[in-house]
Design goal:
25% strand, six-stranded parallel sheet, alpha/beta, eight-stranded mixed sheet, 324 residues, 36% helix, Dihydrodipicolinate Reductase, domain 2, Rossmann fold
Length: 324
């Protein structure tokens, strides 16, 4: 049975992705963004004024104590994701947490255990599942018209200093493996419909100040026989973002976020794949629909946990190679 009451959602995170979610949620009928919490109360008030949010809160605890909040979207720093996901579930709030769910397998498993204990809707923001470009390819696969032989993926950014997506100083350090690789590891298994049975990784030098590898290469093989080659870099001073090449038995497709092209770079119209061409909006619509329909969402914590198992195995491999 569908619950058609107004769904009251709080937003944690007043940065670039918080703004994307605020804009997306405004376009969903029957949804009200009731409160926002950011790094500071002043920042939350500024965000609330700019995005038409009802209230600014000083802390997530304050939000979780509000009776008129049904659910929370977490667009906060990665190190807070698991802890805040657990807090939301323990407070009886449905939760959507931006990728990655956690930066360790143990924390990811704890979040899934909390979801199962509470029965609440909990999903991770694995946006590639929702981008119209990747949805179009998935429909071809489900129709039996396309079978993936290889995915070739490039995830490239220029982040030699610790800045966020807005070019502002960041209080935490981003990570190629636990954040950016998570998108592709999950998408590869999702699109092939086959578990990852082999995973290898190598990384470049560790940045002397950031303490992370700035370059990484990952190889994956699914039980179906499909393979994936993923190149990641924070050193790339060129076209930025993530670019996917699907090589299959009946064609080649290039996905660039919400856009899709043939192997000859001819555009493919994906405007009718879903109700929007904005992957974040489609992700938020799935979260809202799952709450209303009392069902498991696509990209639920249970569905994405295998991704974090693979990331943990790759981390162990990298640490072993580094002698740590």
């Amino acid at each position: 049975m569908t619950d058609n009451r107004t769904l009251r959602i709080a937003l944690a995170g007043g940065g670039a992705f918080g703004a994307k979610h605020a804009a997306a949620l405004r376009r969903i009928e029957g949804v009200e963004v009731t409160a926002v919490v950011s790094g500071t109360l002043e920042g939350a008030r500024k965000f609330a004024a700019e995005h038409g949010v009802g209230r600014a809160a000083a802390s997530l605890d304050e939000v979780l104590a509000m009776d008129d909040v049904d659910a929370v979207v977490l667009a906060t720093p990665t190190p807070l994701h698991a802890e805040q996901t657990l807090a939301c579930l323990d407070a009886g709030k449905h939760v959507q947490v931006e990728i990655p769910l956690a930066s360790s397998l143990g924390d990811a498993e704890a979040c899934l255990a909390a979801q199962r204990r509470t029965g609440l809707v909990a999903m991770a923001g694995h946006t590639r599942r929702f981008n119209p470009s990747h949805q179009w390819v998935r429909r071809r696969i489900e129709a039996g018209a396309f079978r993936i032989q290889q995915m070739d993926v490039q995830t490239y950014f220029f982040r030699r200093s610790n800045l966020n997506a807005l070019g502002e100083p960041r209080s935490w350090t981003d990570h190629l493996l636990w954040h950016h690789a998570a998108h592709t590891v999950d998408l590869f298994a999702y699109q092939t419909g086959s578990p990852i049975v082999q995973a290898n990784a190598v990384q470049g030098p560790i940045h002397p100040e950031l303490g992370i590898a700035m370059d990484m290469s990952i190889q994956l093989r699914a039980a179906s026989g499909a393979i994936c080659t993923l190149s990641l870099s924070f050193n790339n001073d060129g076209p930025l973002g993530t670019f996917f090449r699907y090589i299959g038995d009946t064609g080649t497709y290039l996905a660039r976020y919400d856009d899709l092209f043939t192997g000859k770079d001819e555009p493919i119209d994906v405007s009718r794949v879903d109700v929007s061409t904005d992957g974040i909006e489609l992700q938020d619509r799935e979260f809202v629909a799952a709450i209303r329909e009392h069902r498991e969402p696509n990209s639920s914590l249970a569905q994405v946990l295998d991704c974090y198992r693979t990331l943990a195995a790759l981390e162990k491999q990298l640490n072993s190679a580094a002698g740590t």
